[in-house]
Write a structure and sequence with these properties.
Layout lengths: L1 E4 L7 E6 L2 E7 L3 E4 L2 E4 H9 L10 E8 L2 E10 L6 H19 L5 E6 L13 H10 L4
Parallel strand pairs: 7-8
Antiparallel strand pairs: 1-2, 2-3, 4-5, 6-7
Helix pairs in contact: 1-2
Length: 142
């Protein structure tokens, strides 16, 4: 029997029960709504990494952004230097944009390939989505 659990707002986990087993699928805060459709930020990050085989080893972060047209996403993806050369970088950022449109049905507001090691981390080593959003807003990833 498959039962969906609706988060109560205290923990923010998205989970379901299947045959008396609890499966935690993600965090409520990692879901954005673009034009009425829910999108998991981790799914968008995986899509971005699929644009080039050399990107899969590098960290990335999808950040919810607000604009005149509503909620959207910015994607920051660490990449090695050879993928950040002007011509290659533009082509790869366009490929990521095309994949987001094809797989998720909308155009990401912003896509940036950034130097390896430049995305902020929490004390536990995870990518700090909130700090990355602040750096993007401050213009640190130009």
């Amino acid at each position: 029997m498959l039962t969906s659990l609706i988060p109560d707002g205290v923990y923010g986990d998205i989970a379901f029960l299947d045959d008396h087993r609890l499966y935690v699928c993600g965090r409520l805060r990692s879901v954005i709504i673009v034009r009425g459709v829910n999108h998991n930020l981790e799914d968008l990050e995986r899509t971005a990494s699929s644009a080039h085989s050399k990107l899969t080893a590098y960290p990335r972060v999808a950040i919810s952004t607000q604009g005149d047209d509503g909620e959207n996403v910015a994607i920051l993806h660490e990449a090695p230097l050879f993928l950040r050369k002007d011509a290659v970088k533009q082509e790869l950022e366009q490929e990521i944009s095309d994949l987001i449109l094809k797989n998720h049905g909308f155009c990401a507001r912003e896509i940036r390939l950034v130097p390896a090691g430049s995305l902020p981390r929490t004390r536990s080593g995870k990518i700090d989505r909130k700090a990355a959003d602040k750096l993007l807003s401050d213009g640190s990833f130009i």
